[in-house]
Write a sequence for this structure.
């Protein structure tokens, strides 16, 4: 009789995500077992291509359509993993970086849909989430120069500096 050698491939398991939260574009190291041969990493259903793959770790970049949820790794034996990654908001730009109190500022970025607050140097602003990549905010009446930040249930965004311009009142002309 002939004997044939065969290799048993086990589904991947995950033990940690480093970091465990971050905005779209973050490179995440997935640590675990049986990761060699992995062909896909899914961030709550949004697919990313793994790279720098070893038996115990791989890297993947959080894709543009990712939302907070379970990270699943797929190898030839199938999918595995049950750890959660939180996709935090990211401010890419402001329509203007200087303005007076009461003026409108449009924030452009990612993962804004579930925003719970927009703050100008720690002061809560009135805002509307226009879509996942845009928020329209009003500079608060008591705002001072400092950082603009968006918060969602997944966490806080990066910050962008906004300068509150002084309003000059001209009286007694003539």
């Amino acid at each position: 009789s002939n004997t044939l050698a065969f290799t048993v491939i086990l589904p991947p398991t995950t033990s940690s995500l480093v970091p465990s939260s971050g905005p779209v574009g973050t490179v995440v190291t997935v640590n675990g077992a049986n990761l060699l041969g992995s062909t896909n990493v899914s961030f709550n259903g949004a697919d990313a291509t793994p790279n720098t793959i070893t038996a115990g770790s791989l890297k993947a970049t959080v894709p543009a359509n990712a939302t907070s949820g379970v990270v699943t790794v797929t190898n030839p034996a199938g999918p595995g993993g049950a750890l959660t990654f939180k996709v935090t908001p990211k401010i890419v730009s402001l329509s203007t970086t200087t303005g007076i109190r009461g003026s409108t500022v449009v924030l452009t970025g990612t993962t804004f849909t579930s925003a719970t607050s927009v703050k100008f140097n720690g002061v809560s602003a009135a805002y509307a989430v226009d879509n996942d990549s845009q928020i329209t905010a009003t500079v608060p009446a008591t705002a001072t120069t400092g950082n603009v930040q968006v918060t969602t249930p997944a966490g806080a965004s990066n910050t962008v500096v906004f300068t509150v311009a002084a309003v000059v009142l001209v009286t007694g002309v003539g």
In short: The mean pLDDT is 95. The two ends are 112 Å apart (CA to CA). The chain is about 0% helix and 50% strand.
